[in-house]
Design goal:
This protein is of the alpha+beta class and 344 residues long. It is 35% helix and 17% strand.
Amino acid sequence: MLYDRRDFGLLRLAGTYQWLPLAPLRALSSLKHLYREAELLSTLGLLSFSRSNQYLMPSPEGYQFLASMEIDCYAPTKRPYAQSSALRRRLEVGTVLLTCLGAGIEPAYDKVDRLKRQPVFLPAFALRGGDGNLMNAASCVGFGHWGNHAYLLQYVSRQNPGFFMNNELSHLYNLASVFSERLDTPQALLLAGESYRSIYEMLSNQTPSGRNGKKGFTDYSQAYPRLGIPVSLVSCDDTGAMQLAIMRQMDYRTRIAQAAFGARWKPEDDRLPEADGHVDGNPLVIAVDMDLRRLERVCRDACQQGRRESQKHKNRCGIFHPAFTAFYICIHNKSRLDIFVVIR
């Protein structure tokens, strides 16, 4: 039997990460071919689907095939319970991983040095093994490096209302020398979730969880206003994959502005320093990265200057809330993604 590169890549992916979730393989348009490949490898006896139909993993024959290719993948000693927290966390990591893969961001397989290359995503559990316990008291999904930015990724849900903020941010800071020898790679927090709405609901939740404040654990709603680095939201679906595909490009804000407005766009705006320049004298904000705090700051400053309305590009119809609050179209409708806004 002849196997192509795609067969080998999917087997290695499943063997390395274990319990690879099926839902995003079925749902993400850019990964439909991988799901068909998984079905084919299953009929050939190299991949097996869980009884709950939640995940896939190599069969014993699949692990033997990987070993014959000198790929060290070890089968788990036992399969997880269908409702266990360990399985839920691994499926969350896999969902983020596959969303990144759908955006053209490659998964890393082992060592932290893989983060030197970009675009790349390295799951945190890979750092809890061979290189020692580098992730003590941390629950992050992983780390990313693309678009000349370094990212700490978290999965936000009702089961995951917060994180060990100081501890986990220190891991990102400690990796600075990996991202760049000059220690100058901009760092950001990326909050992933089922949808933009579900993430934003957790960020705006005013009721503290039972874990908040215990052993360094901080709810996302408490940490969000205090974080000193940019925070972006991403939905683990086709919209989020498109968002990441744009964010992995170098200078994507500048390139979007130039493509949309050409010579009408000017790269700086003295009235709103955080804006992405201006168009015909009107400040421009590139919103594709879903950094809502930056949008809120720009809208607040615009409101103080007496500006009355803020409109999206005509192909992304809709009007911002007149009080410049952060209820954007992409929060309420996960099938849309706002590229930029022009404040008038």
